[in-house]
Amino acid sequence: MDRNLIQRTISGIVYVGIIILCTTSMGAQLINGIYPGIIQQQYLYFGLITFFLIVGAWECIKMMKFGNGYEKWVVYPLVIFIFYIFSKRYFHHDFFYDFRLSEILALSLIGIAIFTLFKYPNELYYNSGKLIFVVIYVALPFCFALGLPKFSNFNDSFSLEVLFLFVLIWSSDTFAYLTGKFFGKHKMAPKISPKKTWEGYIGGVTLTLVLSYFIEYYQQELRGNWMVVGFLVAAFAPLGDLVESQLKRTFGVKDSGNIIPGHGGVLDRLDSFIICAPVVYLYFILEKFI
């Protein structure tokens, strides 16, 4: 067996295992089984998202090749400050999914940043543009990801929205890849991601909807309708991959990092999550008014 394949398989299993332990009650149960009462599940999830944020921001800064200037020294404090504001909401259960103009504006900034990357990439050659992009592209999605699960300090419960979001993203990527490999003929974005096809995209959407039907049927305690969530994930997950591919092409980088052996960096693995998390969060906001 190819050595690289073995490396990718092992690191992939470890990665999935960490996601499961940090997004379900299994992580806290495992640790508390060894050291009783040492941790609650929400802290494991918060630690996971914090890790993704810190490493993702570092990878993005390195990838965008900040020049000499104050922006390089301001970006990390700004990212951490914004994450701190959302962390206070997380631990005080302040994600009520009410219609807040500030949240809608923050979510819209992600769309503006993506539009700028594709339409006006030259704007990102300036340090100020790089600073703004890192804050919007990395910090805000992980901040909104804190608001996806529900948890309780009283009965040690932790809801599974994030776990199933990852499951749908993985299924969308897998189904799109397999469908595109066997049936793909029409390229989706040949200059950005040559292997992506419209047939693969349609296959990913269709089969992810099938999986989301079973999630909706067997996990009815989850927030929202997961047929809708499944469609949103399948529709937007490929965009996440295209965004990161365009970012790497703009700055002439192959991978965002190498922290996950055989898979690249955090941004390489979480490109779809970075887009899907705020989209699903926005759906949870609007779902109350539909």
TrEMBL record:
Family statement drawn from the similarity comment of this UniProt entry: Belongs to the CDS family.
Alphabetized UniProt keyword annotations: Cell membrane, Lipid biosynthesis, Lipid metabolism, Membrane, Nucleotidyltransferase, Phospholipid biosynthesis, Phospholipid metabolism, Transferase, Transmembrane, Transmembrane helix
Keyword Transferase set for record: yes
GO cellular component: plasma membrane
Top EC class of this enzyme: transferase
Listed transmembrane segments: 12-31, 43-61, 73-91, 97-118, 130-148, 160-179, 200-218, 224-243
Domain of life, per lineage: Bacteria
Protein's UniProt name: Phosphatidate cytidylyltransferase
GO biological process: CDP-diacylglycerol biosynthetic process
Subcellular localization, as worded in the UniProt entry: Cell membrane
EC number(s) per entry: 2.7.7.41
GO molecular function: phosphatidate cytidylyltransferase activity
Protein's organism: Chryseobacterium potabilaquae
Reaction it catalyzes: a 1,2-diacyl-sn-glycero-3-phosphate + CTP + H(+) = a CDP-1,2-diacyl-sn-glycerol + diphosphate
Top-level taxonomy: Bacteria, Pseudomonadati, Bacteroidota, Flavobacteriia, Flavobacteriales
Membrane topology: Multi-pass membrane protein
Involved pathway(s): Lipid metabolism; Phospholipid metabolism; CDP-diacylglycerol biosynthesis; CDP-diacylglycerol from sn-glycerol 3-phosphate: step 3/3
UniProt keyword annotation of Chloroplast present: no
